[in-house]
Amino acid sequence: MTDKQDLRKQCGQLYHEIEEKGWKVVKQGAEAITIITEFYPGEPCILKSRPEKRWRHPILDQKLTRKRCLIEARLLAKCHAVGVNCPLLYFLEPNRGQIFMEYIGGPSVRDYIKEFVSEEEYETSLAPLMKIIGSEVAKMHMNDIVHGDLTTSNMMFRSVETLEPVFIDFGLGSVSESEEDKAVDLYVLERAIASTLPDSAALFHYVLEAYAKTWKQCKPTLRRYDEVRQRGRKRTMVG
Ligand SMILES: Nc1ncnc2c1ncn2[C@@H]1O[C@H](COP(=O)(O)OP(=O)(O)OP(=O)(O)O)[C@@H](O)[C@H]1O
């Protein structure tokens, strides 16, 4: 099947709007399609749409789509309220599984940091960024926002001049007091940084240092994070 046929099949009705209006598809994932369009005239905006899944029962599908969409929008709004850097939420169509949000124009943290090759560069250029990431994640967690997929691809820059990471993709997130959920967020982040930058173990200390500085009551979560890490290690050793 060609990409176009695939897109037509996956998007259904939305496909015609994409074609007619010349919208740009950024990502066509299994769950969602992300498109650059306009919300205010002349201003690029992101439309994240979760089209109908024909393999699911229609009522269940609508319920799940609506739920994920509402959770994502709620988390964006909550992040905004507590000062975590994330795209502005413009508009929501839960019954169509659509969220319109601010377009973030810069590269992802992943694409930015993978250009750094030496450990010296990590220290001088990336330590400040790691501290900002640690402090932003602490702000999320102290407000019971769990991201659910804290990878370096899910952090983008508005521009490389400011180097302030903007957190995207709260589609797997939740509002949760659970130390385990927060610890898993930290572990996923550690693994994501390690997979983007080999020999970067030292860098993650900056993340944790800023995390602890921002969130004074984080000790139980950090203890849980140590346990999650040990479990992760054992799993890797067993294969
Ligand atoms: N606000 C945004 N501004 C610019 N680009 C974005 C924005 N949101 C998403 N993107 C781009 O679209 C891609 C896919 O978005 P996102 O990660 O939210 O969806 P997904 O992974 O397909 O969905 P999900 O994990 O919820 O099923 C991102 O990797 C990023 O490149």
Automatic annotation (TrEMBL):
Its main location: nucleus. GO terms for biological process: tRNA processing; tRNA threonylcarbamoyladenosine metabolic process. It comes from the Eukaryota. GO terms for molecular function: ATP binding; hydrolase activity; protein serine/threonine kinase activity. It is found in: Nucleus. Keywords: ATP-binding, Hydrolase, Kinase, Nucleotide-binding, Nucleus, Phosphoprotein, Serine/threonine-protein kinase, Transferase, tRNA processing. One of its GO terms (cellular component) is nucleus. Its EC number is 2.7.11.1. Gene3D superfamilies: Phosphorylase Kinase, domain 1 (3.30.200.20), Transferase(Phosphotransferase) domain 1 (1.10.510.10). Residues 1-239 form the Protein kinase domain. The keyword Nucleus applies. It holds the Pfam family Pkinase. The keyword Nucleotide-binding applies. Signal peptide: none annotated. It catalyses: L-seryl-[protein] + ATP = O-phospho-L-seryl-[protein] + ADP + H(+); L-threonyl-[protein] + ATP = O-phospho-L-threonyl-[protein] + ADP + H(+). Component of the EKC/KEOPS complex that is required for the formation of a threonylcarbamoyl group on adenosine at position 37 (t(6)A37) in tRNAs that read codons beginning with adenine. The complex is probably involved in the transfer of the threonylcarbamoyl moiety of threonylcarbamoyl-AMP (TC-AMP) to the N6 group of A37. BUD32 has ATPase activity in the context of the EKC/KEOPS complex and likely plays a supporting role to the catalytic subunit KAE1. The EKC/KEOPS complex also promotes both telomere uncapping and telomere elongation. Belongs to the protein kinase superfamily. BUD32 family. PANTHER family: EKC_KEOPS COMPLEX SUBUNIT TP53RK, NON-SPECIFIC SERINE/THREONINE PROTEIN KINASE. This is non-specific serine/threonine protein kinase. It comes from Schizosaccharomyces osmophilus.
